[in-house]
Amino acid sequence: MKRVFPFTLGVLVLLVLVGAVVAYEQAARVTAVFPADGAAVATGSVEIRITFSHPLTVQDVQKRVRFSPNVGGKWRVEGKTAVFTPNMPWRGGQTVTVEVAPPRGIANLPLGAVRRWQFHIAGTRLAYISPSVGIGNIFTIDPQTGKIAMLTHSNRVLDFASGFGGRYVYFSQQNFQHGSDIWRIDRLQSGEKSLKRLLVCGDQQCTSPTPDPTGTYLAYLRNDGFQQGTRVHVFNLNTGQDVALSSENGTSILPKWSSQGQLAYYDEGRRGYVIWQPDKGEIQFLANDTGEADAWSPDGHALLMVAMFLEGGGSEQSPADAPYLSAHLWLYRLSPTLRRIDLTRDPNLEDGTPSFSPDGSWIAFGRKYLDPQRWTLGRQFWLIKPDGSDARQITNEPNYNHLDFAWRPDSQAVAYQRTNMSLLTEPPEIWLYDMKTGESRLLVKDGVMPRWLP
Questions:
Q1: Structurally, how many domains does the chain consist of?
Q2: Could you list the residue range(s) of the whole structural domain that residue 98 is in?
Q3: Which residue of 125, 297, 383, 389 is surrounded by the most CB atoms within 10 Å?
Q4: Residues 113 and 165 in one domain
Q5: Do 182 and 240 fall within a single domain?
Q6: What is the pLDDT of residue 83?
Q7: pLDDT: is 86 or 360 the higher one?
């Protein structure tokens, strides 16, 4: 009997070893990753792809994979590959660490070591169109190093916008039928794979591409033919369905999405802003006579627009002899109840081109005094709090117009366009204002439409 125990013990050990080997062979191990270890990627909205030796469920992947810095997102499984799409992009300049825990075997023991790798997110870049006269291309610049890269090479770009956390760049490009089509660049691809034509418009002008925050819808302007007005259209990027949002002979402009997925646009025939939602249609109408550029608050609960007022006639508040038009910034809070706030207040001002900081703390805008003592040729760059307090003048260059304010995603800097109104042959410039230092510096000598790419 004594000789049986060692034999039995040896069999048990052998069975355990065989079981461990079988479990190891059957366990799903990492065989490939994207981005690769040490890679530098263009945008923080990159999808993480992990290929395993065997298929896994979404629940299994969620248990085994960790990110640092951690971000929320969604997993899906494509065969043996698990794909993670972040809800919000990692910030430019960050290094992301991915860890995959080993599979578990007998007695819940780990079968192997933790698989760990890192990739780096390129710094936030500023995109713009150059040259400013005629039709140009989209370029990007690194504000820290001054390094410039070219995104398009057609020399036929009209305008553009970024979407889906900076991964995609949508742009309108002149075609050879005297119209313009809408294209998309995927910054995570290279070569021909990065470029896709979304809308073929023939001899019609398709411009002002404006993606919604989910990457599902693209609003844009389309001139629907001879003697017809320009209308806002919404194109479903998943299904290809295209919808015009105003009457056939009507004109609508200025499409702009909120963070809540609501689209504001200006209807010239109705003389006001329409708030539209894909699943509900029109949900609100705000009367307005100007049809100038508007801006959503970051939370999507307020819309900032320009309202014109007839002033003057010798009143105490407006001492000018002749009537004149002032321009005020009106903030419409849409929820929980509609209310309107005049941020300008002074009748001797012309305010315009507002832009909210991403954290909601400030509004950048252009301002011109209308009284003879302080009148300037161009609007100056100002900042103001969303409640109308703490107004600050940033620039004091009377002959220059300041507009197209673009906040850096961290709310610590503002890019803007500067145009010499006394010498219009001088090309417009793009400048950068630093909120911490209070200093502005020149970035681009001949450029328009500054837009940040996270």
A1: 2
A2: 19-121
A3: 125
A4: no
A5: yes
A6: 95
A7: 360
